[in-house]
Amino acid sequence: IFLLNSGNKEITWMMLEAGAETDVVNSVGRTAAQMAAFVGQHDCVTVINNFFPRERLDYYTKPQGLDKEPKLPVKLAGPLHKIITTTNMHPVKIVLLVKENPLLAEVEALQKCYRVLDLICEKCMKQKDMNEVLAMKMHYISCIFQKCLTFLKEREDKLDGLIKSLLKGRDKDGFPVYQEKLIRESIRKFPYCEATLLQQLVRSIAPVEI
């Protein structure tokens, strides 16, 4: 908690990578993220909320149960982990991270990755200490990966075409309608209707016209 009060997000990240638990509470029943938010260290809150241990992803690189093959090839774990832990959730940023890595920017690779993200999302919602924020993030990235797949399969300009579509503004005011529709679609497709976070998002967005 003392280190969080300093607002040093690099130290916060190092502590998390060293195995610091994010759900442990202090004497007044608050987690590290809650204490960081209380003292105004929002950069630290962002680091904590976006942290996903690499070993949790590596679990999917080994065959489980009756599976003969792992759900995620080892070579994809690093690039996927980089995207999972990014704090910049702009859809263009995520597509650019896919585009810049030849291992990811392939149909079969993206199919494997989005299916693993869906599994992580499910686990976040069904575990004892439900993590709706992380579940929504995994689902959101999965939806963007699936949109990448559509453009890779159907468009000659591939991911460049998706980036252009996301950035293009409508004539009258420059508003990026395609980008807005993609984000709304990802929220609408979140499979856990009972989630408090989903209900909050729907209440905020539903009354607002594009």
Overall description:
This protein has 210 residues and is mainly α. It folds into two domains: 2-50, no CATH class; 54-206, no CATH class. Helices cover 61% and strands 0% of the residues. It has helices spanning 2-5, 9-17, 32-38, 42-49, 54-58, 74-84, 91-99, 107-126, 132-154, 158-167, 177-188, 196-205. Helix 2 packs parallel to helix 4, helix 3 (32-38) packs antiparallel against helix 4 (42-49) and helix 9 (132-154) packs across helix 11. It is globular. The model has no long low-confidence stretch (mean pLDDT 89).
Give the structure's gist in a few sentences.
With 210 residues, this protein is mostly helical. Helix content is 61%, strand content 0%. The protein folds into 2 domains: 2-50, no CATH class; 54-206, no CATH class.
Shape: globular
Biggest beta sheet attributes = none
**Oligomer state of the chains in this structure:** single chain
Class by alpha and beta content: mainly alpha
**SS strand fraction:** under 5%
DSSP, total strands: 0
Spatial gap, N to C terminus? 42 Å
- State Rg: 18 Å
Descriptive key words:
12 helices; 210 residues; mainly alpha; single chain
Secondary-structure blueprint of this entry?
Blueprint: H1 2-5, H2 9-17, H3 32-38, H4 42-49, H5 54-58, H6 74-84, H7 91-99, H8 107-126, H9 132-154, H10 158-167, H11 177-188, H12 196-205
